Amino acid sequence: MQRLLELFVRYNNFLYFILLQWISLYLVFKYNDFHKEVYGSQLLSISGFFQEQNQRIRSFFMLYEENEKLMNENIQLKQKLVATQEALNAARFRIPYSRKFNLLPDSLFPVSVFSFIPARIVQNSIHDPYNYFVVNKGTKHGVVKEMGVISSDGVVGLIIETSENYSVGISLLNKHFRLSTKIKSSNIHGTIHWRGNNPRFAYLEYLPLHLPVQVGDTVITSSYSNYFPEGYNIGKIIDVKDPKDGQGFHEILVLLSTDFYKLENVYIVKNHHQSELKTLNQKILQYK
Amino acid sequence: MPFRLLSSFLIIFVFQLFFFNAITLYDMAHAFVFVIILLLLPLDWDYKLLITIAFFLGLFVDISVLKFGIHSFTSILIVTMRGFWIQIITPQINPNDKTNFKPFLQPLGWSLAYFVPLIFTYSLIYHVLSDLHFTINTFWKFFSTGFYSSLLILLIYALFLKSSDRR
């Protein structure tokens, strides 16, 4: 305190100078309209600049939380979308039936058989012929084998191994991986298969030559697959060629909608009727 | 301070408020004649008293032209700067004892070197603070005001103040 007083005494001239200048500037910016306006707008822009920077820093630190929040929102929307699609499919059959017998469908919006678990890719290979990925969700989070994995862009792969906290998936970029698909515009079914070359392209196989296929058609998941909801994006046809070896199928090149180079956030797809379907499939095998 | 000098300052100040404020040329060149009072206030007076006088002189001019605070801010700065400027242009004087230093007794060349740069500095600070930026228009206002004020101040100084104080 004593030192502070000494400082005040020593620099009293300077402090008095500052005081008078401050009063003058206060008068300038308080009572002159032009200065008040400029000062106001400058202050606003300076304040805006600092607010923006603060917001950016805050957003940066909250990015993880924000991402989780968005992923959860995405899941809810996906579930609603899948439920709506299923309801529409069901309505196609029920409406003529209900008209005929004067009955109303039970509900146009049944609960979806699919639900989603958000996950993050922690390991991913794309340059091998047999690629796999690891996600940060395991049995603790409800992940089991044979669950599909999708990203916001398209199909990623299938879970093949699980531990408590992590799961391994076979990537769509694996020569062993084949998935039942269909062409969106024509409902023609085929199988998507990656042949181990460019990670951006795969082939749509087993489409007979007599069936029309157009460049630009979208390839989506079909209802034959138990692992993915129907109608989920796989890619776009970019080239249709005649078969090389005289086989009776088109040679169709598909640009995959999932960019495996940038893969980060994914959703693990849970089919609530999976075990039921599996049991039925096993029974079918008995008749073969 | 001699009574004649004090009364001269009063007359100059009254003229500033009621006459010189009104004779702005082309809305560019202002006549800031009262700056001579700031420059001729005794050098040996207490600094706080000097800047208080500068503040109130500036404030009165501000009130008369409805530009609150601009003259008072500039006046305080000029009164502060003049001590340093005298030291620069007159290195032989003792910076701690200026009681014997009389600006009136200095030759005309010294008066020019003392007044003109400080008047131009006053004009510069005033116009920059007034416009809050520096454009070519601000430059012309600064230059014309500096020139016009310097001319009037040197005239008043040579005709009335310098001769009256010598006597």
Task: Explain what this protein looks like in three dimensions.
The complex is a heterodimer of chains A (288) and B (167). A 6-stranded antiparallel barrel of chain A has the order 1-2-5-4-3-12. In chain A, a hairpin with a 7-residue loop joins strand 7 and strand 8. Chain A is of the alpha+beta class. Chain A has helices at residues 2-10, 12-31, 33-61, 63-100, 274-287, and strands spanning 114-124, 130-135, 148-150, 155-162, 167-174, 178-183, 189-193, 201-205, 218-221, 233-241, 251-256, 265-271. Chain A is elongated, with a radius of gyration of 31 Å. Chain A has 5 helices and 12 strands. With 167 residues, chain B is an all-alpha fold. In chain B, helix 5 runs antiparallel to helix 6 (136-166). The model of chain B has no long low-confidence stretch (mean pLDDT 86). In chain B, 35% of the residues are buried. Helix content of chain B is 69%, strand content 0%. Chain B starts with a helix and ends with a helix. Chain B has helices at 3-18, 35-40, 47-65, 70-89, 108-131, 136-166. At the A-B interface, helix 2 and helix 3 of A face helix 3 and helix 4 of B.
Structural class estimated from helices and strands of chain B: mainly alpha
Strand order of the largest sheet of chain A: 1-2-5-4-3-12
Mean pLDDT of chain B: 86
Number of strands of chain A: 12
Share in helix of chain A: 25-40%
Q: Biggest interface, and residues per chain?
A: A-B, 19 and 19 residues
Low-confidence stretches of chain B: none
Beta strand % of chain B: under 5%
- Kindly state the number of beta strands of chain B: 0
What is the H/E string of chain A? HHHHEEEEEEEEEEEEH
Structural Rg of chain A: 31 Å
Distance between the termini of chain A: 98 Å
Structure annotation, total helices of chain A: 5
Q: In this structure, how is the largest beta sheet of chain B organized?
A: none
What is shown here, in short?
The complex is a heterodimer of chains A (288) and B (167). Chain A has 288 residues and is of the alpha+beta class.
